[in-house]
Amino acid sequence: MSTGDTRLPDDSNSSTEPAGSLGKSEPAFLVVGKLRRAHGVHGEMVMEVMTDFPERLRMGKQVYLGEEHQVLTIRGKRNHGEGMLIAFKGYDTPESVAALRNQWVYVLSQELPVLDVQEYYHHQLIGLRVISEEGRLIGSVEDILETGAHDILLVRSPTGAEVLIPTVEAFVTNIDLEQSVITVRTIPGLEPES
Fold first, then answer.
1. Domain finish residue from 111, 138, 164
2. What's the CATH code of the domain at 48?
3. N or C: which end of the chain has fewer CB within 10 A?
């Protein structure tokens, strides 16, 4: 999953904590890309970008590679097609970067840019309970689908059914990170029949 932001309505009753700040259950590391293959003869690698903030991946920045979160320092980067070419200090040849192939690239969550009050990172919404305005449990957020126009919350109901809820003001009326709950306005056909 990406570290993209989701624009949702602001509500004065929601948490006063900025949306980009770390909550109690936030992960320590977030994926920003995946290394694919060596490129050229100077140790560059093709990286699939999975962040809305690629500009923070700059020379001298430390990133964390793979499940062991191996610390690497970026020595260079440049745009390449839909991704980027990235190079790390200490890796100067195609042979030296071969072991880095197909590894996830992480950054520390605490380094994320702070978002506006009505914006949220996807990882902040995963797992939140979703309730109707009347207080009825609809389910919990299992995933967020990026469609281009707006994101869609994929909510798993207590019966196991999928409920798709667009992240627009007509449906999402409140997000409370402190209480771990999203309140939505329901319409006929939104929820599966019992």
1. 111
2. 2.40.30.60
3. C
Domain count, the chain: 2
- Round to whole Å and give the CA distance between 181 and 110: 22
Say what the pLDDT of residue 61 is: 92
Residues in contact with 1: Cβ distance below 8 Å, sequence separation at least 6, in sequence order: 31, 50, 122, 123, 143, 144
Q: Contacts by 35-40 with C-beta closer than 8 Å and gap 24+?
A: 35/65, 35/86, 35/97, 35/100, 35/101, 35/102, 35/103, 35/104, 35/105, 36/83, 36/101, 36/102, 37/101, 38/94, 38/97, 38/98, 38/101, 39/80, 39/85, 40/85, 40/94
Predicted pLDDT of residue 10: 38
Domain of residue 105: give its range: 29-111
User: Where among 111, 131, 161 does a domain terminate?
Assistant: 111
Report yes or no: 51 and 33 within 8 Å, Cβ to Cβ: yes
pLDDT tens-place string over residues 61-120: 999 999 999 999 999 999 898 889 999 999 999 999 999 999 999 988 777 666 666 677
Alpha carbon distances (Å) from 58 to 54, 63, 163: 8, 10, 39
